[in-house]
Automatic annotation (TrEMBL), chain A:
<keyword id="KW-0500">Molybdenum</keyword>
<dbReference type="GO" id="GO:0005507">
    <property type="term" value="F:copper ion binding"/>
</dbReference>
<comment type="function">
    <text>Catalyzes the oxidation of carbon monoxide to carbon dioxide.</text>
</comment>
<dbReference type="Pfam" id="PF20256">
    <property type="entry name" value="MoCoBD_2"/>
</dbReference>
<dbReference type="InterPro" id="IPR000674">
    <property type="entry name" value="Ald_Oxase/Xan_DH_a/b"/>
</dbReference>
<dbReference type="InterPro" id="IPR037165">
    <property type="entry name" value="AldOxase/xan_DH_Mopterin-bd_sf"/>
</dbReference>
<keyword id="KW-0186">Copper</keyword>
<dbReference type="GO" id="GO:0030151">
    <property type="term" value="F:molybdenum ion binding"/>
</dbReference>
<dbReference type="InterPro" id="IPR012780">
    <property type="entry name" value="CO_Mo_DH_lsu"/>
</dbReference>
TrEMBL record, chain C:
<dbReference type="InterPro" id="IPR001041">
    <property type="entry name" value="2Fe-2S_ferredoxin-type"/>
</dbReference>
<dbReference type="GO" id="GO:0046872">
    <property type="term" value="F:metal ion binding"/>
</dbReference>
<keyword id="KW-0411">Iron-sulfur</keyword>
<keyword id="KW-0479">Metal-binding</keyword>
<protein>
    <submittedName>
        <fullName>(2Fe-2S)-binding protein</fullName>
    </submittedName>
</protein>
<dbReference type="Pfam" id="PF00111">
    <property type="entry name" value="Fer2"/>
</dbReference>
<dbReference type="InterPro" id="IPR012675">
    <property type="entry name" value="Beta-grasp_dom_sf"/>
</dbReference>
<dbReference type="InterPro" id="IPR036884">
    <property type="entry name" value="2Fe-2S-bd_dom_sf"/>
</dbReference>
<dbReference type="GO" id="GO:0016491">
    <property type="term" value="F:oxidoreductase activity"/>
</dbReference>
Length: 806, 288, 169
């Protein structure tokens, strides 16, 4: 070898494979304003659709008169439910097994519900026409309190379900009842409670909020009537699912539907479902024969296209005097709004809420969830979390703090006492999951040591004394949160969407010159897949990431996949990528053996090629092998070098983490200031630490917002309050705390590269950390639980009720 | 969110602008920074048929020192208020308040005239102008008239400004050198209106308050000049008992709405807390 | 529509003079995106809170969703499309955002970079607090701002010809 031959380390570095902080390839276009988002699309002849919406939360519609609107020059059509009935699309099925009105069919069930769809030459004329559509309403009694949904005299929200006592998830017990979902062993759990030294019980509510990505939901539908082909560009986190749904609903054959998700301006769960806007744009394009664009505005986004949470959880824990937990009982009242449009795998009406035993070894547990209708927008999406996992994590993490308080134990010590131990993995939880791997004690201890937990507790005690002496009006809270997520839906035995198993896929083609194009069934909305997927391939097949192009979102070219949400991309598609890569490497090994005239068993892999064992000089790089694959493959072997993998994971993955939050609260204003926030994440193998850190920062910021004020509120009339960025709390750079990140690495044993997924952990673990910090601050004044969100006035009110204002 | 159609006017003089307002009456609206009016138009809650853009009137720009008073022309932006050395020296509370309004982008275009004229109780400048006992110059077909800020506001979005008048300038008496001042604003985040805010200007003479003016933002449907609270404090040493009485007097005149910022009770109390803190900070800044 | 009055506007956008006829109510953001095909500036909230539509107008950062195109008649504008160096390479700010991972979905990025651009012109050596205040009219849903702050610090250092020192975590 001469001096110019790169060393092994240099060759490895040149790959920019797994574990390196590779800069993002997406950023080249995004930093120059050259991202291609849906609203950037302009097609010849394209027109614009927009909705007439209901000002009432519950009303009969007695008349719709679009005649004045239709007289306005530039107005092309006004669609109502009657028009949609002609194509059997006035209603559409939801992912949760319910049906949902596309346009109001005789009545409305929530404020801003879609009533008519105006199609006009441009968005200005469409907006003018909306003002001219006359709709007559007859107001009906409004139901906004889910606790009153099942009252005997509660108004009937869904006359279409009249007499239907069997829902998609079992029997319905009231006209506003959707389902009851029960998991666990009731008897065993009752026994644990009857034998317990100590029990706690608390209603822990997780308020309604919204994912609110900066780009709203939007699409362009274009029907080519000659070819009978429909193309839809849209903000789709799961483009293939949209294609299948569109085919089933429209009866257009699936091969004639082209669904394309271009660049997406954030999703956070908002862009998983199918919304009336998509359906109406498609129908309008079929009717008019020209492309139709639909772009919702921010108020429409916040008030109609999905909400998140709205879970009212009554948690009970049974424990021994020494703090050992013996039983967990949870009842959830789930407010689903006017239609059950939850975006969960079809068999899971409450998602994976049965992860509610958290990181603790509960010998017995029982869970029951009741879903009910109210006059609120439908949805129930997984806002930066796996399905209902953040609700579960919040529930158990608050409940453990309440138990610690009752036992007069430190909340960190109580957690340490009850953690599932490293040697217990794979661990079978009382509510039916098999946790793949974990080392909770190590993570918690590292977090406590790093932040100086005991010293902070001492400082807190001193401040409490000073407060009691009247020397300060500031109190201090330390929020402890230790979460276990369940992500990577999912094994086909558990998880499907409308019958399609939740696998994911990758297709990799190595070109003759040794460069690569690869396509996946996932769809990045900012996660940086074009960068990280290439890193996995680079490490697996020894071709530099810079030579690997990653493409997602075009259903014509990408293999079928279930999309990106619920932190499933790395656990599922990430595995498919690794396995497809390995198929390529296996074939490459045969080609290399032929080239080197040795048996393939005499070869070993070395960074970016194969070498003869014991004779590393005799080697063939992947680049050389790729060329050979196309011009001189071994006799009898098919030419080419490409592979497809569809991966059905054997299990979910279970990322975990220890989060600690130090907060100072001004008792006189209720203003809470986060002094420190430390987040330790264990997401198994780390593909790109830079991107992981970015994901954690972003998720923590969302958690901060949710815990400290971000809320979709309704008044008693069902008016949605604060559906704009004035009121809906999205923190700016000024309010957002500084984040400290850390990690441990416990690979997933069943995942080909050991990775678990990380995008949602910070939201799941962050919310309880903030809420526990607020609650922890007020504990010494006798408080047990203060409901979220913890905006200033609610904190002030809690302080007042606790007598802190003198 | 698209505004309705309108006819656009861009006069180059105040007289021309007033003439347009006169000829169109209620159907015309002046446009200054636009960050209140344009969102309202996009929501179709405002639909003026004629929009009179004041941005082309050179005469509506600038800050002048008239000795005892400072005159700020209406189209002077918050960004310009913040950058003004004259204001920094003589009326530093204007800079302090301006920095708490909206966000950097909006401060580049948001104007003092627009902020005080449109009658939005959430705006910060009206209470500040009441605290400073400023007068507004209103120019109409009959010429100029001056209205004290303390008499200008009638209800939310209702003021003494006639439909054919333009608020062209604000005249502010210069407080004595060495005065203490503070604008304390509680808000949920940058860009929000105040949950409650208090403006204080005071002078101290040997530790005793010789003059004290107080006004409150966004705790009623108009800004509130808290005259009684100021009077209670005048002659005091800002001792806890007197401050408590003044705070109670200020809280007494509030009548806030309950909204996402909190229930009325909270906002009243926050007006008191903001006042208390503004007094304390103003006192530390005052020459004794 | 023929009966709607069309008003002539002239602007210099990214150094190029443009002339168009617009309806009076045409918002500047729509003028840029629809008439000039400059789709870098985005629409995020429509109520002047998110800053995704931020452009530079006569040296000021403005939210182009809350301004009519006619108001910008005669103005000089810069959008993200005009931010790269003359030779086509990424400018210091664009490079900073990439190096410091100051973006994820990229939707807020054009507005964020334009805001930072004007901020650095006015204050070439901003403190972290000044940067946070300076970008407080721009919302980002992905990054939590921490890396955006670093991106702007990186650009400031590069523009000042000094070495960027990343603060110890």
């Amino acid at each position: 070898m001469n001096d110019m031959t790169p060393t092994r380390e240099q060759r490895e570095a040149a790959l920019e494979g797994m574990g390196c902080k590779r800069k993002r390839v997406e950023d080249i276009r995004f930093t120059q304003g050259k991202g291609q988002y849906v609203d950037d699309l302009k097609l010849p002849g394209m027109v614009f659709g927009d909705f007439v919406r209901s000002p009432y939360a519950h009303a009969k519609i007695t008349r719709i008169d679009a005649s004045e609107a239709l007289k306005l020059p530039g107005v092309i059509a006004v669609l109502t439910a009657e028009d949609l009935k002609g194509v059997n699309l006035a209603w559409m099925p939801t992912l949760a097994g319910d049906v949902q009105m596309v346009l109001a069919d005789g009545k409305v069930l929530y404020q801003n519900q879609e009533v008519a769809f105006v199609v006009a030459e441009n968005r200005y004329i469409a907006d003018d026409a909306i003002q001219l559509v006359e709709v007559e309403y007859e107001e009906l009694p409004v139901l906004t309190d889910p606790f009153k949904s099942m009252d005997a005299d509660a108004p009937v929200l869904r006359p279409d379900l009249d007499g239907k006592m069997e829902g998609a998830h079992g029997p319905r017990k009231h006209h506003n009842h959707i389902f009851t979902w029960e998991v666990g062993d009731r008897e065993e759990t009752d026994k644990a409670f009857s034998e317990a030294d100590v029990t706690i019980k608390e209603l822990i509510s997780y308020h309604r909020t919204h994912p609110s990505p900066l780009e709203t939901c939007q699409c362009v539908a274009s029907m080519d009537k000659i070819k009978g082909e429909l193309t839809v560009w849209g903000t789709f986190q799961a483009p293939h699912v949209i294609r299948t749904v569109a085919s089933l609903l429209s009866t257009i054959p699936e091969q004639k539907i082209h669904v394309i998700a271009p660049d997406i301006g954030g999703g956070f769960g908002n862009k998983v479902g199918a919304y009336p806007g998509y359906i109406c744009a498609i129908v309008a394009s079929i009717v008019t024969g020209v492309p139709v664009k639909w772009v919702e505005d921010r108020m429409e986004n916040l008030s109609t296209t999905s909400f998140a949470r709205d879970y009212h959880m009554t948690a009970e824990i049974a424990a021994k005097n020494d703090g050992t937990v013996t039983g967990l009982k949870v009842h959830v009242l789930a407010d689903h709004g006017g239609f059950d449009a939850c975006a969960d795998p079809s068999k899971w009406p409450a998602g994976f809420f049965n992860i509610v035993t958290g990181s603790y070894d509960f010998p017995a547990a029982h869970l029951e969830v009741d879903g009910v209708y109210t006059n609120k927008a439908p949805g129930g999406v997984a806002y930066r979390c796996s399905f209902r996992v953040t609700e579960a994590a919040y529930c158990i993490e608050r409940a453990m703090d309440i138990l610690a308080q009752k036992l007069d134990m430190d909340p960190a010590d109580l957690r340490m006492k009850n953690f599932v131990k490293a040697e217990q993995f794979p661990y079978h939880s009382a509510l039916g999951w098999e946790y793949d791997s974990g080392d909770y004690h190590t993570a918690m201890q590292k977090a406590m040591d790093t932040i100086g937990y005991r010293e902070l507790r001492a400082e807190q005690k001193a401040k409490q004394e000073a407060f009691k002496r009247g020397e300060t009006r500031e109190i201090m809270g330390i929020g402890v949160s230790f979460f276990t997520e369940i992500v990577g839906a999912g094994p086909s035995k558990n998880c499907d969407i409308l019958g399609v198993a939740m696998f994911d896929s990758a297709e990799i083609r190595v070109h003759p010159t040794g460069s690569v194009i690869s396509r996946m069934g996932t769809k990045s909305q900012g996660q940086g897949h074009e960068t990280t997927w290439a890193q996995i391939i680079a490490t697996e097949i020894g071709i530099p990431a810079a030579d690997i192009m990653v493409e997602e979102g075009n259903t014509d070219t990408a293999p079928y996949g279930l999309g990106t949400y619920g932190s499933r991309s790395t656990p599922v598609a990430g595995a498919a990528i690794a396995l497809a890569s390995r198929k390529i490497r296996n074939k490459a090994q045969m080609i290399a053996a032929h080239m080197l005239e040795v048996s393939e068993y005499d070869l070993e892999w070395d960074v970016d090629g194969f070498q003869v064992k014991g004779n590393p000089q005799a080697r063939k790089s992947m680049k050389e092998i790729a060329w050979a694959a196309y011009h001189a493959p071994p006799p009898g072997m098919e030419p080419g070098l490409e592979a497809v993998s569809y991966y059905d994971p054997p299990n979910m993955t279970y990322p975990f983490g220890a989060y600690l939050c130090v907060m100072d609260i001004d008792v006189d204003t209720g203003v809470a200031k986060t002094r420190r926030f430390y987040a330790l994440d264990d997401c198994g193998t780390r593909i790109n630490p830079m991107i992981i850190e970015g994901q954690v920062h972003g998720g923590l910021t969302e958690a901060f917002a949710i815990a400290m004020g971000q809320e979709i509120r309704y008044d008693e009339m069902g008016n949605v309050l604060g559906a704009s960025f004035m009121d809906f709390f999205l923190p700016t750079a000024v309010e957002t705390p500084h984040w400290e990140t850390d990690f441990t690495v416990t690979p997933s044993p069943h995942h080909p590269i050991g990775a678990k997924g990380v995008g949602e952990s910070p939201n799941v673990g962050g919310v309880p950390a903030f809420s526990n910090a607020v609650n922890d601050a007020f504990k010494f004044l006798g408080s047990t639980h203060i409901q979220m969100p913890h905006d200033a006035w609610r904190i002030w009110q809690a302080a007042k009720e606790l007598g802190a204002h003198g | 969110m698209i505004p309705g159609a309108f006819t656009y006017h861009r006069p180059s003089s105040v007289a021309e602008a007033v003439a347009i307002l006169v000829s169109h009456g209620d159907e015309a609206r002046p446009l200054s920074g636009g960050h209140s009016l344009i969102p309202m138009m996009k929501l179709r809650m405002a639909a003026p048929e004629h929009l009179v853009d004041l941005g082309g009137i050179a005469d509506l720009k600038g800050i002048t020192d008239d000795g005892d008073t400072i005159t700020i022309r209406a189209m002077t932006t918050q960004h310009e208020l913040i950058a003004s050395d004259l204001l920094a020296q003589k009326l530093p509370i204007i800079r302090e308040t301006s920095l708490l309004i909206a966000d950097p982008q909006i401060r580049y275009v948001g104007t003092l005239g627009g902020n005080v004229a449109n009658g939005d109780p959430g705006n910060d400048m009206p209470a500040l102008m009441q605290c400073l006992d400023a007068a507004y110059v209103l120019t109409g077909p009959e010429g100029d008239r001056e209205v004290p800020a303390r008499d200008f506001y009638e209800a939310a979005y209702f003021t003494t400004l006639a439909p054919d008048e333009i608020l062209t300038a604000v005249r502010i008496p210069v407080p004595p050198a060495g005065h203490g001042y503070a604008y304390e604003k509680l808000k949920r985040k940058v860009g929000d209106y105040a949950t409650a805010a208090a403006a204080v200007v005071l002078t101290l003479d040997g530790g005793t308050v010789s003059f004290c003016s107080i006004a409150l933002t966004n705790v009623a449907d108009t800004p509130l000049y808290a005259q009684e609270a100021g009077e209670i404090l005048t002659g005091s040493t800002l001792d806890a008992e007197t401050v408590a009485r003044a705070v109670a007097a200020a809280e007494e005149i509030t009548e806030p709405a309950s909204d996402g910022r909190g229930p009325a009770e909270y906002r009243t109390k926050m007006a008191g807390v903001m006042l208390q803190r503004a007094l304390a900070r103003a006192a530390t800044r005052a020459a004794s | 529509m023929s009966d709607i009055e069309q008003i002539p506007v002239t602007m210099t956008v990214n150094g190029k003079k443009v002339q168009r006829f617009v309806e009076a109510r045409t918002l500047l953001i729509h003028f840029l995106r629809e008439d000039l095909n400059l789709t870098g500036p985005h629409i995020g909230c429509e109520t002047s809170h998110c800053g995704a539509c931020t452009v530079e107008l006569n040296g000021m950062s403005v939210k182009s969703c809350t301004m009519f195109a006619v108001q910008a008649d005669g103005a000089e504008l810069t959008t993200i499309e005009g931010m790269a160096n003359a030779d086509g390479t990424l400018s210091a700010l664009q490079e900073g955002f990439r190096q410091m991972h100051g973006l994820q979905c990229g939707f807020c990025t054009p507005g964020m970079i334009l805001r930072a651009h004007t901020l650095l012109k006015e204050n070439p050596n901003p403190t972290e607090e000044e940067i946070r205040m300076g970008i407080s009219g721009n919302l980002c849903r992905c990054t939590g701002y921490q890396n955006i702050v670093k991106a702007i610090q990186y650009a400031a250092a590069k523009l000042n010809g000094t070495e960027f020192q990343e603060a110890a975590e």
